[in-house]
Amino acid sequence: MISVIIPTFNSEKTIDRCLESLTNQNYKNFEIILVDGKSNDDTLKIVKSYLDKGLILNIKTEKDEGPYDAMNKGISMAKGKWIYFLGSDDYLYHDSVLKQFASYAEETRSDLIYGNVFFEPYGRIYDGEFNRSKLIKRNICHQGIFYKKTLFDRLGMYNLKYPVHADWEFNIKCFFSSNVKVEYHDFTVAHFSDGGLSSFEDNYREEMLDFLILKGIGRLSLRELSSVYRRFFILKTKSLLNL
After folding, report:
1. What is the DSSP string of 28-58?
2. Cβ pair 75, 83 in contact under 8 A
3. In the 8-state DSSP scheme, what is residue 143?
């Protein structure tokens, strides 16, 4: 079974489209765990209307410390072998996405299977297969990733120290862990609506580079390591000069 975890907060304008994309899936062996941060709009009213449509919905509503805190709560509630995170303003790419994933998962020994997302602000597919070098520069959208639940037992939950990029840190752990098997398939999983790609230029990128240097130094080539240090010192200099 797949556990689809959806963090929400005041998502009344987008949650209907998100849940509709799950209702229309022709693969039905999944549950939905919706973790709401105490919305004060009609989000929960819309969500509860889907109980009559046969969706397996587990709803938790309480204040949280942001989306990664909500995602951690969802992981703890999940009953599925595989975990998938879908933003409340995102939706699955077509009606056979979960069936397509299940066909890959049935034969695999991988711990993480990922594909692409359609990045709506730029109207393009993002972003193909990743390796360690590519992951230094940008993240894989979690809307394109399916994780085995056991990964979170082995590597820990999302680190709330990174309120913007906790998923990037977790993906780095996966790619740099010798006992984690990662698998890419060229299929598009979801429409990604958020402006997340541009946010890689914020201050948290500096923290992520710190993490890469400390955790990845033994596994990076000299060329990759040089690229990490170059980016790190550019960001440090800009920070010191308040640029």
Report:
1. --EEEEEEE----SSHHHHHHHGGGGT--EE
2. yes
3. G
pTM of the model: 0.84
Per-residue pLDDT tens digits for 11-48: 999 999 999 999 999 999 999 999 999 999 999 999 99
164 pLDDT band, cuts 50/70/90, is confident
Cα 136 to Cα 117, 127, 231, 234, distances in angstroms:
19, 14, 10, 15
Domain with residues 2-200, CATH architecture: Alpha-Beta Complex (3.90)
Q: Tell me the domain boundaries of the chain.
A: 2-200, 203-243
Q: How many CA atoms lie within 13 A of 222 on its CB side?
A: 0
Work out the number of other CB atoms within 10 angstroms of the CB of residue 6.
26
Give the H/E segment covering residue 171.
Answer: helix 166-176
Q: CA-CA distance, 104 to 163, in Å (whole number)? A: 31
CA angle 166, 169, 175 (to 5 degrees): 140
The CB density around residue 168, as the number of other CB atoms within 10 Å, is 22
DSSP state of 66: S
